[in-house]
Design goal:
This protein is α+β, with helices and mostly antiparallel strands. The protein has 12 helices and 14 strands. Helices cover about 30% and strands about 25% of the residues. The strands form 2 sheets. Strands 5, 6, 7, 8, 9, 10, 11, 12, 13 and 14 form a 10-stranded mixed beta sheet that branches. Strands 2-1-3-4 form a 4-stranded mixed beta sheet. Strand 11 and strand 12 form a beta hairpin. It is elongated, with a radius of gyration of 32 Å.
Length: about 425
Amino acid sequence: MTSITEITEKILEYGPVCDHCLGRMFGKSSHGLSNGERGRAMRVALALEKNIPYENEKETCWICGNVFDKTEMWAQKAKEALAPYEHKTILVGCKVPPLITENEEMVWTDLSLQNPETLKAEFNRETGKAISALTGSEVDFKRPDIVVFCDLATETVELQVNSHFVYGRYLKYERGIPQTHWDCRVCHGAGCERCNFTGKMYPDSVEELIGRPIIEACGAEKVILHGAGREDIDARMIGTGRPFVLEIVAPKKRSVTIEEMEALVNKSAAGRVEIRLDHVSNRQEVETIKLGKAHKKYSILVKVEGDYSINDVRLALKSLKGATIDQRTPDRVSHRRADLVRKRQCLDIECEGMEDDLFRITVLGDAGLYIKELISGDNGRTVPSFAEKLGCPAHVTSLDVIMVEGVVPEKQKQEN
């Protein structure tokens, strides 16, 4: 069996090798020593066994070019790049020149080494320690605020500023506002006469009304609203509000509290949109809220073409309670949705009374149940429907969403 000193001697025959690269050849075989310390120990052991003077390597390492002599330089560059951004946690990554990778892999292969560590792994670890010591940042391997990328070939630093997430519910009191920004259908965002050169189909959205004050407060690039579904533009979102996660992209300030954000938005968008923030969130909750199938409750006003009493209406609604509804993609959204027949359940439906010759109806349904079409039938595309059961045309004149179930546990502003 070949001894470590014999392998050390063979490694040194390739040319000058720094202690870091020498130690990394056995980087995964033991713990407690850094690669630099391990490399020095290997030189000492070889000198003692061969009865030759111990000397530090004075020439440039042929494997890495003495990358680890510049650790403090990288830490200083990272500190300068990080300066504009509030953060608590970092993670270091690097781009290693192909020649360095080829050099180390050639030694591993030639000598059949079993437990080497890559230069990339050591660089990330040692540079991360140096940056942490200089900036006070903590290394976080799972959810860092910022990832520091070091390009070893160009000696440049780039940052990936990870998004900040907050979870809450929004209420929309004004009809005619979409949930998110829509590019103008004519110019596709470029600006034209139809959109008054704004590039938008609608002057405002819930996303923009929430986002503008938060972008300013956090020094962010933009915000993205991830909602648990969306209401029609002409519908209000009232009652318990709609769950959402707000993604704050590349924020310079992370210390703005959810209470401060909530107050800023509710003042800026008063009478139009209101938010109730609950906790600091994460990307996993974005996936949860997007994939969740929450029940929703609606309050609608329905116009019936004919002389029908509340009892007539209630009798027709009774047959829809608990029914499975076959809904072909409605005409009004067929330009942007696949033409499919979807099965959805109408869990509950009741007539609460009359308002100005209109029937006030509440509906509890599966996620994705089209309420307007449940009432009108959409020319036979939704079966069964209220109009079919009543035996005359009927349509929704106004719609309010009054309850959306949450698929993310709400923490009532406790720390995440």
